[in-house]
Amino acid sequence: MVSDVPLGAFLSGGVDSSAVVALMANLKKEPVTTATIGFAEGGLNELPFAREVAEQYGTCHHEKVVAPDCADIPEKLVAVFDEPFADSSAQPTYCVSKLAREQVAVALSGDGGDENFAGYRRYLFDVLENRLRGMFPSWVRRSLICGGAALYPKGDRLPQWMRAKDPVDKSLQGSGGRRLQLHDLVSGAPDLFTRGFMEQVGSLSPTAHFRAHYRKADALCPLSRIQYLDMKTYLVDDILTKVDRTSMANSLEVRVSVLDHGRR
């Protein structure tokens, strides 16, 4: 929070950013400047949650509703990233960075909280899958359950809760198996790419890369291993890259306080 220029925070209304804002409010004499963006779609809009936190801690709150037809932003993001970048949240991150820069030059964010404290929904699924796996001997998983999964229709157009083929098939392969395969788009869906691209990729195996991090984790708990894997791959190559590129494109410095281990 030490800064020679105006400082504020991103506030989505979620646990991580709200915790950061709460700590800032307890340390600052003047109100914390917060920035939030929302969407017209009710299921995606987080503005009401952010407003509650802003009111609770008396922040100087700024918000903006982002329209889905911001056609100029994707073109800007192509120049900002200068490489294929498939995280769709880059667009709202760019928007909230632009909004924050109108008020401050430095902003704190809550990124890294999900990886540190297992906040993603997929972590819950991983825990449940490991428990399910532990209930059956390996021969039962291979012969009966995997056999039944093979007969179950793929059902891409079925309601999400009925799409059991892929989760069951992969979750019973072994600890971390499904999570590792979810990372691997190249090997799992070769039809998405041209033959020339696949020839250039050659024997590259994303799954092997992720498995190396999974095995390197200094933990026995499968969940901790998945968290370590995400910290070494998804967090640095997606989340932090996204925030860094989109914020700096708006001349905004973002500090990731949840990942700051320099001071204790």
Give the topology, please.
Elements: E1 7-10, H1 15-27, E2 33-39, H2 47-56, E3 60-66, H3 72-81, H4 90-101, E4 106-109, H5 113-117, H6 121-134, H7 138-151, H8 165-171, H9 177-183, H10 185-188, H11 195-201, H12 206-216, H13 222-248, E5 253-256
Can you characterise this structure?
- The protein has 13 helices and five strands.
- It has helices at residues 15-27, 47-56, 72-81, 90-101, 113-117, 121-134, 138-151, 165-171, 177-183, 185-188, 195-201, 206-216, 222-248, and strands at residues 7-10, 33-39, 60-66, 106-109, 253-256.
- A five-stranded parallel sheet has the order 3-2-1-4-5, with helices on both faces.
Question: Given the helix and strand composition, which structural class is it?
Answer: alpha/beta
Uncertain stretches of 5 or more adjacent residues? 161-165
- Spell out the helices and strands N to C: EHEHEHHEHHHHHHHHHE
Q: Spatial order of the strands in the main sheet?
A: 3-2-1-4-5
| C-alpha end-to-end distance | 14 Å
Mean pLDDT over all positions: 82
Question: Count of DSSP E strands?
Answer: 5
Helix content range of the residues, please?
40-55%
What's the gyration radius in Å?
Answer: 21 Å
Q: How many individual helices?
A: 13
